[in-house]
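Pipeline run #58 for the internal structure catalog. This entry was flagged by the ingest filter as a single-chain record with no existing model, so it goes straight to prediction. Upstream metadata was stripped on purpose; only the residue string is passed forward. Reviewer on rotation: M.T. Logging verbosity set to normal.
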Amino acid sequence: MKILITGGNNAKALKLMKAFPSHFVLLADYGDVPGIITEKYAFSSLGLLNKDSIAHILLNFCITEAIDCIIPLHDYEIEPLAKSAVLFGEYGIQVLLPDADIITNYINKEKAIFRHFAVFIHGDHIFSSEENADMKKLSPSFNGVFGYNNTDDLKLFTI
């Protein structure tokens, strides 16, 4: 599986790579990005930032690069991608975010700093930066990367 993580120039993106040790991870960001390619990961540029066409830019990039799953980390990407998740799905690209109708419940409005993060795919807790994290099974439509200090208060892991 080929996974795209946006915000690739940020340390949070590098931390998130630990959740996907058996997949190829493409770390991408807008503007200048270092040109590094290894067996397990690479860095790539998404081009110039245009917030008005984020979903279009990312869909085109995902199709061109044969991406299977996208994890958006920039806060300005969250809502446009959640609203476009069905379109991405038609191209076989999973957007790792909660459904658009509930996404506002998980936006980190206070810009809290989290000690830990967890990854959920189809409601299953597949990774946590905290050893022995006690995460409950959630709805099968629940997807995303969430920061937390308390496992009962999950907020999207964004930059």
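catalog note: Residues 16 and 119 are 9 Å apart (CA to CA).
catalog note: The longest helix spans residues 54-64.
status: ready for reviewer M.T.
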